[in-house]
Amino acid sequence: MYFFRPLGMVLARAARALRLSPTQVTLAGAVVGVAGGALLYEPGLGVLAFGLLILHGILDSSDGQLARMTGRVTELGRLLDGVGGYVTHAAIYLAVIARDGSPTIVLWAVAAGLANILHAQMYDYHRTSYARIVIQGRAVTGMTAAPPGRFAASIIMAYKDLQARLAGAHPAVERAIDTRSQAGLVSDEDRDRYRRCFYWPVRGWNLFGDNTRFYAIGVLVWLQRPEWFFAFVLIPMNAAFALVWLSQLRADRRFLLPGVIN
């Protein structure tokens, strides 16, 4: 809100002036992120690696702002943005594994990687739903986009299906809102009710964005213990995830209760 978004807007305006597309900014961010992750292999370059990861976070903010600024928001763009985050984390994981060199670190990395995917999916799903319903006032039936190719469409559908399976009761909330929508627009009552029910859970999901993990890497580089990154993901991040997920489930059930004003 106070760092990545303002700097992302500066880069988004610069990209618009240079006539770059949001996809080009996404790809640039992925290249920077992979470079930053890979540099964690070399102990003497940890600070530079952290700086590049922060730059990746700024670019990750700027591509979405550029897409909204130029009216080029698409599901494919959202998918590519997620892929950029995943390849950045893959570079981080591989660099830390190679730097440590022990067989045990591979097991920690696999477990942390699965947790990382779970965290990222729910972060993306709940933030996107909140923005669509509360800020934009759009139901699922109101979403329009240029159809991508068949392969890209199948990947997008698989991505959404995975998120829905992980989201507990929240898809039922979206279906209920969608049923009451008119011409693809969410009613003011549902928008207000959704905001009051889910404002704080969504604030909790913000913890699971990439930037939290990048901050942790900065601290661990300073401590000269980047191999502790996997333990950070598996222990405190997983504990926080369980608390936020249960808070979200309670809010979902409260929203779905008939006749309850939240």
Multimerization state: single chain
Q: What number of domains? A: 2
What would the average pLDDT be, to the nearest integer? Answer: 90
Specify the overall morphology: globular
How many strand units? 0
Structural class: mainly alpha
Compute the number of helices.
10
State the end-to-end CA separation.
27 Å
**What is the percent of helical residues?**
over 70%
| Main beta sheet | none
Low-confidence stretches: none
Please trace the helix and strand order, writing H or E for each element: HHHHHHHHHH
Strand content: under 5%
Radius of gyration: 19 Å
Give structural notes.
With 262 residues, the protein is mainly alpha-helical. It folds into two domains: 1-101, CDP-alcohol phosphotransferase transmembrane (TM) domain (Four Helix Bundle (Hemerythrin (Met), subunit A), Up-down Bundle), CATH 1.20.120.1760; 102-262, no CATH class. Helix content is 77%, strand content 0%. It is built from ten helices and no strands. The chain has helices at residues 4-17, 22-38, 46-70, 75-100, 103-135, 150-166, 170-180, 188-205, 210-223, 229-256. Helix 3 (46-70) runs antiparallel to helix 4 (75-100) and helix 8 runs antiparallel to helix 10 (229-256). The protein is globular, with a radius of gyration of 19 Å. The two termini are 27 Å apart. The mean pLDDT is 90.
